[in-house]
Amino acid sequence: MKKRIHDIELFMKYPLEVQEELFRELIRRGKNTEFGRKYGFDSIRSYRDYKNNVPVHSYEQIFPYIERVMKGEQNILWPSEITWFAKSSGTTNARSKFIPVSTEALENCHFKGGKDLISIYVNNYPDSRMFTGKGLAIGGSHQINEYDPSASSYYGDVSAVIMKNLPLWAQVIRTPSLDVALMDKWEEKIEKMARITAEQNVTNLSGVPTWTILLLQKIMELKKTENILEVWPNLEVFFHGAVAFTPYRELFKKLIPNDKMRYCETYNASEGFFGIQDQKDSNELLLMLDYGIFYEFIPSSEMHRENPQTVGLEDVVAGQNYAMLISTNAGLWRYQIGDTVKFTSTDPYRIKISGRTKHFMNAFGEEVIIENAELAITEACNQTGAIIDNFTAAPIYFDEGQRGGHEWVIEFKLAPGDTNKFRDALDTKLREINSDYDAKRYKDMALQPPIIHAVNEGTFYQWMKKRGKLGGQNKVPRLSNNREHIDDILEMAGIVTTET
């Protein structure tokens, strides 16, 4: 760990040199792939050449290459054999998207990120006792890739891909066993995990806040306790990521009433491991620069252009909003992941996640994007004969004794005869087109059914007018990951909810 801390300090001190060396290695490795030959990697000598040769790629644009790899072809995007794919939601044209995970990405990015997380934590807290007990991680599930005729490759949630491939030493210090951790039936999985881990000495947790809360509540129910410290008195840290933690902080304080409990944020995704909270007194994330990922950034003014201008790490400015662009050791080339970040520091490079490049809801890892919402609401209208004028939606956050969910405010031109039928049709369509939302809605375990509020005609017009946002260029935000807009509309409409 001490050696690795020294390496981290080196890339903090020499960030541009580390990224330049990594860039050259990625180009060298990729030049004989089909993608590399198509875009002339052989002639690339500089970042400027790279920008000139290779266009920015969305998932939809790079998917034809990924699809061929999923069907068993190799050396398409990356030279080494790829047999694992991380599955997640968020694309505009499919229920799920699939991200190739090479051996290099597993070893030098995902695993390295996990080890660095522990190294940084222990460096910050040398009195840690986390190794005296077990680490509990809540993962997803995986399955054989049915697109591959040879059935020699697999896909699953990135957490499942990582867990399945962890080295033996890492399996020894975690709980529960893989056969339970990778179960795909969530209701049964949470029950089994609760029963097994409630009898163990768990000192650290890792995962998405949503599922972690469900597990802690299930354990407390089984053990008939008021808080989780009565079950795990040595619990000291929760490593969390994937969704914003702020809305959950107060609930975690109730579940784990210990002033010394520590929370450490990470920035990892199916595409890679990007950032780690490296300071005790700040939730800024250190951009990890030696994980086989070359970073570029799209300024906010360029985000929605077909061929956006990009800047390298050396040209970013603190406080400005950028869409993140990555080239990776799994063959994602100039790939736009959809996240936006702001640099809080450029010496060293630290960031905060500022949002997505599109409207979205992702308070629970459900990744509902605007296209999902519009398809679902259209289906609900078709089934009920309703006609809508405007709508917006936002999360209902977890609270003690209350599941999370989504709240929709809809202005109907023609209201449905049966609002419950409208709600069910919307919910069913969302589950059909978004696998992550479907998982969270499974048997109402994490997310309750959506709540629909019908408001009078003219409500959105008056709200936009109040905000000084009338005019063709100003649009009602369809989805939001916080309650700022929806609470304002509900208050204006005189609707009182349990959330507000």
Written description of the protein model:
The structure is a single chain. 36% of the residues lie in helices and 23% in strands. It is of the alpha/beta class. The protein starts with a helix and ends in an 8-residue tail after the last helix. The strands form 4 sheets. The chain has a 12-stranded mixed sheet with strand order 6-3-7-8-9-10-11-16-15-14-12-13, sandwiched between helices. Strands 2-1-5-4 form a 4-stranded mixed sheet. The protein has a 3-stranded mixed sheet with strand order 19-20-21, with helices on one face. The chain has helices spanning 2-13, 15-30, 34-38, 47-53, 59-70, 103-124, 158-165, 168-172, 178-181, 186-197, 209-223, 249-255, 370-384, 419-433, 435-441, 459-466, 484-492, and strands at 84-88, 97-101, 134-137, 142-144, 154-156, 174-175, 202-207, 237-240, 262-269, 272-277, 285-287, 293-299, 311-312, 321-328, 335-346, 349-356, 360-361, 368-369, 387-396, 405-414, 451-455. It folds into 2 domains: 2-355, 3-Layer(aba) Sandwich (Rossmann fold), CATH 3.40.50; 360-492. The mean pLDDT is 91. It is built from 17 helices and 21 strands.
